[in-house]
Here is the input.
Amino acid sequence: MADPAPLVRTERDGDVACITIASPPVNALSHAVRSGILAAVEAADADPGVAAMVIRCDGRTFVAGADITEFDRPAQEPVLSTVLAAIDASTKPVVAAIHGTALGGGLELALACHWRVAVASARVGLPEVKLGIIPGGGGTQRLPRAAGVEKALEMITSGEMIGAPAALAAGIVDRVVPGDLDREALDLARAKAAEGARPRLRDRQAQAADAERAFADARAAMARKARGRQAPEYAIQAVEAAIARPFDEGIQLERTLCTELKASAQSRAQRHIFFAEREAAKIPGIGRDTPAAKIGRAAVVGAGTMGGGIAMCFASAGIPVTLVETSQAALDRGLATIRGNYEATARRGGLAADAVETRMARIRPSLDLADVAGADLVVEAVFEDTGIKKAVFAELDRHARPGAILATNTSTLDVDAIAAATGRPESVVGLHFFSPANVMKLLEIVRGRKTDPAVIASSLALAKRIGKVPVVVGVCDGFVGNRMLRARGRQAERLVMEGALPQQVDRVLYDFGFPMGPYAMGDLAGLDIGWRIRREKGLTSPIADRLCEQGRFGQKTGAGWYRYDGGSRTPVPDPAVEAIILEESARAGIARRAIDDGEILDRLLLPMVNEGARILEEGMALRPGDIDIVWVFGYGWPIHEGGPMHWADARGLAAIRDRMVELARSHGEDFVPAPLVERLAADGKGFRDLPPPA
Ligand code: COA
Ligand code: NAD
Here is the structure.
């Protein structure tokens, strides 16, 4: 058998050594790649026939960073900083030639080179904080020296990428080239060798307009945006060292902080989410050979809260969309909201002013359902009512072109029953967006009994195109997210009846890392929807019903579980609500007691884990990681806690089972461990040990 192709190879172009990294899919810096680069750089440096070097990559991208799959093992020499020290020590100029993305260790590699040349479409960034770590290859020391402290702080604490033109303006790359990247890089290397120039970022002083202010601002921003996460603070400390200490000391500190974070529970959780997100898009039986339809035009039926947001998703991604309503007034209202949203984004600087008009122009309003005829995908977002939805789907069946995907955005109704209203149930799927649909990343793709695999493949491809994170789920009441939310909601209600107040319940979840708790969330979404549904089903919820009877529907009426004074969105605890709570507890014969925060957290989260286990048993989600993705991207579960199933595993499933058993004694069936929890815990295993779906 022939030797496998080397991951790093050197070719000569005259007196320039061209070092190529060829390690698909993203040229990550695995141990083998690091060793290969080190050997190639040392060999070229020692070779008297070589005057300069170019480091470039094969495939779709420059180096996309460290190999994340190696993080669970101890670092093995040569570590990245050893490789980069060899470039620092090189007696010959080294040029990085960047295409695709230079991320993390990839950008650090480029920053250690003496020059950086990029194609215009290239992007660069240090995304480590998104994985709960900080750069470990000198990124926190070299980036401030290249781009200044302010820019470096912004990039390192946000983890966001910037495009090549912005990187050029910031001094991160030296040239953006229109033509042949390799040619330009080779020419530059040769020219610099002739000049004898070898500028190293390590020899520069990092500049700041106002360093003290920059660090204070960065800390304030992170307290808001990354509450509870350790990595951003460590990143700030490392950048502080870049101006306060000599380069080698800064490097040392960076490594120490990075090593500590790599072993942290937070980083483990964030790495889990990174891989779970990619796994979620893989569905057994659906492969590259499953034909995915190209969506050239979409249609959305209903221009209310959800329909408007969904239409924006398409318009923003460049997909023309027909928006259908039943009355001109509803259509005008929907379009005005969409425009208002785009204009607000433009005012905040998130969108160019002319982009507002370009996007609005992609939305074609209509009062005639027959206008869906030109669409490859129709998303229904009308009232949550089976009769109305079935009628709409029967109409869609008449008007949509053969092969078009017919999707419903229902949150609670039976997708199979809706599909049965058409003569083509294989084309019907649930596309469950989350509110606000133009913002929330999660998309539950609800696979009906008869949904064609090609429709699932198309939905997955569409999700990626419109920037959503898709999870394929089965048809069950509430699908994955809302089903688990309900389990949490039942306990939230009981806790308040037994002795807690809404503000305590909400604070416990806020402290855990959720953006808000169930009561503030209820006020935001509106309490009247649940009230209406309860009345239709003959159900009651004593406290919530009384609030609604008083017209307290939440933020929109200035009062709900909290008060919202003068149009404010800040919830203020309300003694009137407390009085109602005390009365209803008394009426139910409950002697209220003080409930500690630990019990509140367990009572809220363990039923979710238990419901998640049942969802897995029933095959309504394919993997525990899929459930974690639903909760992180749809409901604000803090990413550094990795989602409910990862959280349970991290705490130890046996300990979770024991606590469930204890709580079940006083608090009933929500806590009786699901058979899957029992089985895994008895075997000393966790959800993570479940076999992958077949
Ligand atoms: N280490 C190991 N594997 C990686 C990786 C890394 N740094 N980056 C990507 N991969 C893997 C993915 O898991 C995926 O594997 P799979 O096909 O088996 O699922 C594959 O490479 C392709 O990645 P994907 O994200 O699906 O491709 P994309 O073209 O949409 O995006 C990137 C490419 C590089 C933008 C994206 O993968 C990314 O952001 N990677 C992480 C970069 C990073 O955080 N680097 C810093 C590490 S400290
Ligand atoms: P909404 O009341 O804001 O909007 C519904 C719109 O549909 C209204 O503008 C109405 O005029 C229009 N409509 C009704 N019948 C129609 C028909 N036959 N043809 C065209 N338009 C018609 O409701 P919403 O909150 O946007 O919810 C829509 C769907 O999305 C529901 O199925 C709901 O369960 C689901 N959903 C809602 C949320 C949420 O948080 N609001 C989240 C996820 C899913």
